[in-house]
Each structure stands twice: as structure tokens, then as C-alpha cells.
């Protein structure tokens, strides 16, 4: 943030501890963000209650204001809940490794099976894939195609084949052609259904998988909770794979599935291609769930920026030179829109589509530089003829100058709001 913004923000109770009101104001925003990200309602509620309890009374840290401090707490707690550091499924060297892929139809089981085969083959593992959808031949063919692409053997079950028969055929195949890892792709249904669950439980009982990986489509939204619970109850899930994170789903399903099973999220599916499987990074998803990108990175940048003090009382007198100074500082830090979103409620308080890009800052710089000292101090005197002169002098259109003056007005309003906030009126800038 520019120095004025930062300075004003810092005054939101600098040495003080977070008050209940401050926490509440930000938590409203957080709860909205969680629900918008499709986190299950109950999970969001519990989460907010838990973090709120932790946050109240917490000391404000360094240069972060109340809102940022709460967001940092929320973010850290989200990362923690999503699993902290990245985890990997267990693959015992020289041991028996059987991974069982389960999930709803269309979740991405078959695709993920192919991706895992590709990933572990690259690591030098010998793989055997098992196409164990006992009802849909097309599903088995789909895995066969992937197996051929990866270059690993595949064993296809027969329609309605019994679990014991499947097991003995896998054993026979392994006796002929040993493998370090057997990955079993199973049938899915569009919804949780007892017949399927019974079938999966029977096959699982027979094959005794060392990992049972529940594949969850990130777009599942609210349902992710019930899906994860149902599968975990019947086949004891050991880990999760979140697919389709390349789409625009915000990832709330990850939090829901994780919180109900307590199992690690091992991988993220990020494309339809065989290469589209990545380790799951909790901090990325946390930022995404909050709708704030890489929150901590941005907060750090704001902290590191060269920040000088400014008299907050001057906010009402914010002139074009101040604007220019701010923008030049912001340029060194990155996209202003990202930084501004760090302030709870700010994205909503700003006009629709408010963004400032680097090029825009250069243009604004040129226009302000073409103004007289008096014009910069008192933009109100900049009428039609002056606007024309400034436009010509800086190589821009009159419309650009109009836009600049309008933006300055908006920034000035923002400053006033921030100042009110600094005076302890509210830590939330939600429009009243
Ligand atoms: P299954 O029914 O669970 O076996 O699901 P599939 O593996 O057949 O996948 C269903 C659809 O989702 C297919 O069109 C896949 O290409 C697609 N898909 C799976 N994983 C991903 C992913 O991570 N990203 C994207 N964009 N598509 C995926
Ligand atoms: Mg499938």
C-alpha cells in the first residue's frame, strides 16, 4: 500500500489487541468468502467460530492492521486445516502397494489413475493398472487407452466379475509381470448409491488396498461434504485427490472434504492431460478460497515497501501530487487491485471494475506532470480548456484526463473512509 494508506491502516489500533468488534467485522467478510467459495455451510460456520475465538485478544502484529491481522490468522488456520505441508501417499519400497481409486462418476477417477501411472512411472516404478468398473465396458476401455499412452499394462475386469475372481486374476498377472504399484480404477455413480457402495466395500475387502484415494471434483461444492462422508464410512478413505482445480471453482470442496474425513489431500488435478497432476499446495488453495490470491505474499510485499509516515489528518486534502506519489510507490509493489483486496470490504466499496495497471500509472504520471502546480493542488479549477491543454501536453485524450480526475475523486473518498476507520469507527468498510 502507498504510504498514506498504510499509515492510516496502521492506526487501526496499532499496539492494541484485536477487539471483538474488529474480529466480527472481518469475519463477516470471511464467512461470505467461504460461502462464495462453496465451502459447506456447516464447515464455514465452525471455521469462523473457531478462528474468531482465537482472534479476539490477539495482539496486532507489526505493520498489519486489524483487518489484515484477522485475515492472516484466518489464512494460517485455513492452511493448517487444509493440511499444512504437502503430503504424499505411502509407497513402500519393495512392498505391496495397492491403491484404490473411488469417487462419483465424472469426478476424474480414470483420468487421475492415468496421471498417477504416468507420474510414478517417471519415478521408475513398475505399474499395473486395473480397470475394475464391472458395469461399464466403455469405462474400462477409457483406462486401457490411457494405459497405452503411459506405456503400462492394464488388467480389465469382466462384466459383473466377482471380487474374489478379480483378486486372483490380479495376483496371477503380478506373478507373471511384477509391479511396484497396482492402481485400481473403480466404477462411479452420479450420486451416492447403496448398491455401488456395497460393491466397492466388497472389492476393497478383497483387495485390501494400502491407500484408498477419494477423487473429488472441485466443482462439487456443497455436496463434497456428503460425498466424502459417505465414501469414508464405507471404504475408509486414506487420502484425497482434488480434480479440476484448473477450472474456476474456488476450492471450497477441498476444505469440506478435508474437514469431514481428516485425510490429507495428496494431489490436485489441473488439466485433462496426463501431465495435469500436481502436489496439493494448501497455501494456494487457502488464498483461492478467500478470493485473495497469494495473500501472505501480498501482505509481505506491503510490509517491505518503503513506507514513510504521513499525516492522516491530511486525507481530506489528498491532492494530485499525493496521488502521483502513491501510484509511483504502488508501482514498485505490484498490482494495486490485489493490494486493495487485502482490505476487508474494500473490493466492495470500490467502483465496479476498479483496477490500475502499470501502463495506466505511467499514463497518469504523464498527465499529472503536464499540469501546473496550482492545478495539482486544486483539481477543481481544471475546467474544459485546461483539460484540453493537459491532454495535448501529455499526448492523451481529454477523456483520459476526465478519467484521471474522476479516479482522484474516488481515491480521495477512499482516503476519507480509511481515515474514519483509523479513528476507530469501524474496521469494516462495508457500505452502510
Ligand atoms: P471418472 O468418471 O471419475 O472416471 O471421471 P473421468 O476420469 O472419466 O473424468 C471425467 C471428465 O473430467 C473427463 O472429461 C476428464 O477429462 C475430466 N477431468 C478429469 N480431471 C480433470 C482435471 O483435473 N481438470 C480438467 N479440466 N478436467 C478433468
Ligand atoms: Mg471412470
Automatic annotation (TrEMBL):
<keyword id="KW-0378">Hydrolase</keyword>
<feature type="binding site">
    <location>
        <begin position="243"/>
        <end position="246"/>
    </location>
    <ligand>
        <name>GTP</name>
    </ligand>
</feature>
<keyword id="KW-0733">Signal recognition particle</keyword>
<keyword id="KW-0963">Cytoplasm</keyword>
<feature type="binding site">
    <location>
        <begin position="185"/>
        <end position="189"/>
    </location>
    <ligand>
        <name>GTP</name>
    </ligand>
</feature>
<feature type="domain" description="SRP54-type proteins GTP-binding">
    <location>
        <begin position="264"/>
        <end position="277"/>
    </location>
</feature>
<keyword id="KW-0687">Ribonucleoprotein</keyword>
<keyword id="KW-0342">GTP-binding</keyword>
<comment type="similarity">
    <text>Belongs to the GTP-binding SRP family. SRP54 subfamily.</text>
</comment>
<keyword id="KW-0694">RNA-binding</keyword>
<keyword id="KW-0547">Nucleotide-binding</keyword>
<feature type="binding site">
    <location>
        <begin position="103"/>
        <end position="110"/>
    </location>
    <ligand>
        <name>GTP</name>
    </ligand>
</feature>
<protein>
    <recommendedName>
        <fullName>Signal recognition particle protein</fullName>
        <ecNumber>3.6.5.4</ecNumber>
    </recommendedName>
</protein>
<comment type="subunit">
    <text>Part of the signal recognition particle protein translocation system, which is composed of SRP and FtsY.</text>
</comment>
<comment type="function">
    <text>Involved in targeting and insertion of nascent membrane proteins into the cytoplasmic membrane. Binds to the hydrophobic signal sequence of the ribosome-nascent chain (RNC) as it emerges from the ribosomes. The SRP-RNC complex is then targeted to the cytoplasmic membrane where it interacts with the SRP receptor FtsY.</text>
</comment>
Amino acid at each position: 500500500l502507498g504510504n498514506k494508506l498504510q499509515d492510516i491502516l496502521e492506526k487501526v489500533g496499532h499496539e492494541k489487541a484485536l477487539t471483538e468488534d474488529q474480529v466480527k467485522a472481518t469475519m463477516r467478510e470471511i464467512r461470505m468468502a467461504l460461502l462464495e467459495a462453496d465451502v459447506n455451510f456447516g464447515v464455514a460456520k465452525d471455521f469462523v467460530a473457531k478462528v474468531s475465538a482465537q482472534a479476539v485478544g490477539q495482539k496486532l502484529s507489526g505493520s498489519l492492521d486489524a483487518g489484515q491481522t484477522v485475515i492472516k490468522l484466518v489464512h494460517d488456520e485455513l492452511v493448517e486445516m487444509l493440511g499444512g505441508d504437502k503430503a504424499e501417499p505411502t509407497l513402500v519400497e519393495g512392498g505391496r502397494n495397492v491403491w484404490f481409486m473411488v469417487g462419483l462418476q465424472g469426478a476424474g477417477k480414470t483420468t487421475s489413475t492415468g496421471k498417477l501411472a504416468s507420474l510414478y512411472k517417471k519415478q521408475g516404478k513398475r505399474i499395473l493398472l486395473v480397470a475394475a468398473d464391472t458395469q461399464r465396458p466403455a469405462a474400462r476401455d477409457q483406462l486401457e487407452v490411457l494405459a497405452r499412452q503411459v506405456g503400462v499394462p492394464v488388467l480389465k475386469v469382466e462384466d459383473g466379475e466377482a471380487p474374489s475372481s478379480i483378486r486372483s486374476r490380479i495376483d496371477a498377472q503380478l506373478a507373471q509381470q511384477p509391479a511396484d504399484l497396482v492402481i485400481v480404477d473403480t466404477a462411479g455413480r452420479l450420486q451416492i448409491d447403496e448398491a455401488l457402495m456395497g460393491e466397492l466395500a466388497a472389492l476393497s475387502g478383497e483387495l485390501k488396498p494400502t491407500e484408498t484415494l477419494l477423487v473429488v471434483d472441485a466443482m462439487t461444492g456443497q455436496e463434497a461434504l456428503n460425498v466424502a462422508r459417505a465414501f469414508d464410512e464405507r471404504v475408509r478413505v486414506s487420502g484425497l485427490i482434488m480434480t479440476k482445480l484448473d477450472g474456476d471453482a474456488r476450492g471450497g470442496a477441498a476444505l469440506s472434504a478435508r474437514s469431514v474425513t481428516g485425510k490429507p489431500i495428496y494431489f490436485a488435478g489441473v488439466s485433462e492431460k496426463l501431465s495435469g497432476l500436481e502436489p496439493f499446495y494448501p497455501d494456494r488453495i487457502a488464498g483461492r478460497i478467500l478470493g485473495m490470491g497469494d495473500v501472505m505474499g501480498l501482505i509481505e510485499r506491503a510490509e517491505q515497501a518503503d513506507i514513510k509516515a504521513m499525516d492522516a489528518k491530511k486525507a481530506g486534502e489528498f491532492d494530485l501530487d499525493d496521488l502521483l506519489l502513491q501510484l509511483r510507490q504502488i508501482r514498485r509493489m505490484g498490482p494495486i487491485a490485489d493490494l486493495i483486496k487485502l482490505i476487508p470490504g474494500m473490493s466492495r466499496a470500490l467502483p465496479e471494475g476498479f483496477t490500475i495497471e502499470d501502463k495506466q500509472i505511467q499514463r497518469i504520471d504523464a498527465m499529472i506532470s503536464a499540469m501546473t502546480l496550482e492545478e495539482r493542488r486544486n483539481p477543481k479549477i481544471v475546467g474544459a480548456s485546461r483539460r484540453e491543454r493537459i491532454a495535448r501536453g501529455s499526448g492523451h485524450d481529454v477523456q483520459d484526463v476526465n478519467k484521471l480526475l474522476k479516479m482522484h475523486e474516488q481515491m480521495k473518498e477512499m482516503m476519507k473512509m480509511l481515515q474514519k476507520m483509523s479513528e476507530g469507527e469501524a474496521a469494516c468498510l462495508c457500505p452502510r
